[in-house]
């Protein structure tokens, strides 16, 4: 890292908020006014709303991520994890990818570490579950699902086949409903290439503790989304939870028991637990406590936004929601807009200028449920336009295609979609990608010593 005399703006996390805030600060800052440092354990930002489509193979996984070093030119990008922060000394401790942890001093701090999967101590979950927060998980899920079809095709053992062809998803919000919609579509489509696996052999189960799915699009469209998924043969169990899944034996609260090799956990998120070591005021659910200017309460040199921050929702308050319940929900719509205001406020803060308030009224939500299927709710002033089916799916693609950061990535995503209109889906499982050295290792390892030759029997004395 550079050691300059300039003040350092340290951005912890290079996701949605980190990337957009860094770009905004670099744009608004005078030449050499400060050193902008972005720290993230990954060298790329992930556009999470596209993870379900990456899992289904509609978008190449590489096009869903944005390389930080390329898009925040002028900033210092450090690949590592911020583990603790000493607010008295204004020093962060960074654990790099390799080597010893080191300390990094800063003058201004941006906290944008997002959220992690919210889990519960359910027996078997840690060993069997897979989340849907990162591109690695989306690639892993796709390979795993296709591998289950290969497995089922290769055996006549009914029990093994049934377990391989049963897919359980826990959590029916954006992430869960979109992922099951996309993966089911992909898997049933892939079945046509198998001799011993048919579409009907597969079983998809969606479980949610709430009484509805897709709360983001409102009750009517959520109900439509549920009926639509059910019409495709997906079993949906609401107001129920998973009690255990030891060795893939899933037991639900409602008494249902199924065996499955695939348990996808998308039951919500919680703020990054590392925040507890940063010496910051936290809200009741672990978010960094911010004011409406995105400044951390009581700390005029620290800002936070996105999934790890509790930010008062001024627009909701204006619409009559009581202040104690009016917090910005954790979604990309807020993260993106907050990042821009946050960037402006950091530059103003550095110059001693006043801070801007953040206020954004919900513009609606779009969700894709597989190829040509979706739901959308667009808010226009007092009116809510509700769309479903193919039109909603186009809205979903149009909105997210345009929201994807950088022109380069937009072009790549639209190119993937265009190719997908003319070419058939890719249905190859590259499960071996996870252990790429295995075959070479087998070839290169020293050959076992030949079995000792049998000593010739002594000629019997005649
Ligand atoms: C599958 C899925 C689908 C979604 N679909 C939608 C949708 O359709 N519409 C919508 O509005 N929202 C959607 N969301 C939510 C949206 O993606 C998030 O709200 C948004 O990404 C939040 O941005 P963020 O910057 O707060 O966090 P993130 O984008 O998650 O970024 C956090 C960053 O912090 C880094 N980090 C973590 N720990 C450390 C550490 N110790 N030190 C340094 N860096 C660290 C992480 O590596 C990551 O890069 C979806 C989310 C998921 C998972």
Automatic annotation (TrEMBL):
Keyword Ribosomal protein belongs to the record: no
One MF term in the entry's GO annotations: NADH dehydrogenase activity
Stretches for region Disordered: 443-462
Comp. bias regions, Low complexity: 443-454
Coiled-coil parts of chain: none
Keyword Cell division: no
Entry-linked InterPro entries: FAD/NAD-bd_sf, FAD/NAD-binding_dom, NDH-2
Residue span(s) of domain FAD/NAD(P)-binding: 8-315
This protein's UniProt keywords: FAD, Flavoprotein, NAD, Oxidoreductase
Family: Belongs to the NADH dehydrogenase family.
Protein name (Swiss-Prot/TrEMBL): Oxidoreductase
Lineage: Bacteria, Bacillati, Actinomycetota, Actinomycetes, Kitasatosporales
């Amino acid at each position: 890292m550079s050691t300059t005399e300039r003040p350092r703006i340290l951005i912890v996390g290079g996701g949605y908020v980190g990337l957009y805030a860094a770009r905004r600060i670099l744009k608004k800052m005078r030449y050499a006014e400060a050193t902008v440092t972005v720290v993230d354990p990954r060298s790329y930002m992930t556009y999470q709303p596209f993870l379900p489509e990456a899992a289904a193979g509609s978008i190449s996984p590489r096009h869903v991520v944005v390389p930080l070093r390329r898009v925040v030119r002028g900033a210092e990008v450090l690949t590592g994890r911020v583990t603790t922060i000493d607010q008295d000394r204004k020093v962060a401790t960074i654990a790099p990818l390799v080597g010893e942890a080191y300390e990094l001093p800063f003058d201004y701090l941006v906290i944008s570490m997002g959220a992690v999967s919210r889990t519960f101590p359910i027996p078997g979950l840690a060993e069997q579950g897979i989340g849907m927060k990162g591109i690695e998980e989306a690639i892993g899920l796709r390979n795993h699902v296709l591998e289950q079809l290969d497995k089922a095709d290769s055996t006549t053992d009914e029990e093994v086949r049934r377990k391989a062809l049963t897919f359980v998803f826990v959590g029916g919000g954006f992430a869960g409903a979109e992922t099951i919609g996309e993966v089911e579509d992909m898997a049933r489509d892939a079945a046509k290439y198998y001799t011993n696996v048919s579409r009907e052999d597969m079983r998809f189960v969606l479980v949610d503790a709430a009484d509805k799915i897709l709360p983001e699009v409102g009750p009517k469209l959520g109900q439509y989304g549920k009926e639509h998924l059910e019409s495709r043969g997906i079993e949906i169990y609401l107001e129920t939870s998973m009690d255990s899944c030891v060795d893939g034996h899933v037991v639900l609260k409602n008494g249902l028991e199924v065996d499955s090799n695939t348990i996808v956990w998308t039951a919500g998120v919680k703020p990054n637990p590392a925040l507890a070591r940063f010496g910051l005021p936290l809200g009741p659910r672990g978010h960094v406590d911010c004011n409406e200017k995105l400044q951390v309460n009581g700390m005029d040199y620290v800002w936070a936004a996105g999934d790890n921050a509790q930010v008062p929702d001024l627009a909701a308050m204006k619409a009559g929601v009581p202040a104690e319940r009016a917090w910005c929900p954790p979604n990309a719509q807020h993260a993106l807009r907050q990042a821009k205001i946050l960037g402006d406020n950091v530059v103003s803060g550095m110059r001693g200028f006043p801070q801007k308030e953040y206020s954004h009224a919900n513009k609606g939500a779009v969700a894709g449920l597989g190829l040509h299927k979706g739901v959308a709710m667009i808010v226009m002033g007092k009116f809510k336009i509700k769309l479903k089916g193919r039109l909603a799916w186009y809205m979903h693609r149009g909105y997210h295609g345009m929201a994807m950061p950088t022109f380069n990535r937009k072009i790549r995503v639209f190119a993937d979609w265009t190719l997908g209109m003319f070419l058939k889906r890719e249905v190859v499982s590259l499960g071996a990608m996870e252990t790429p050295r295995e075959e070479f290792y087998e070839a290169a390892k020293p050959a076992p010593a030949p079995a000792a030759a049998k000593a010739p029997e002594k000629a019997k004395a005649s």
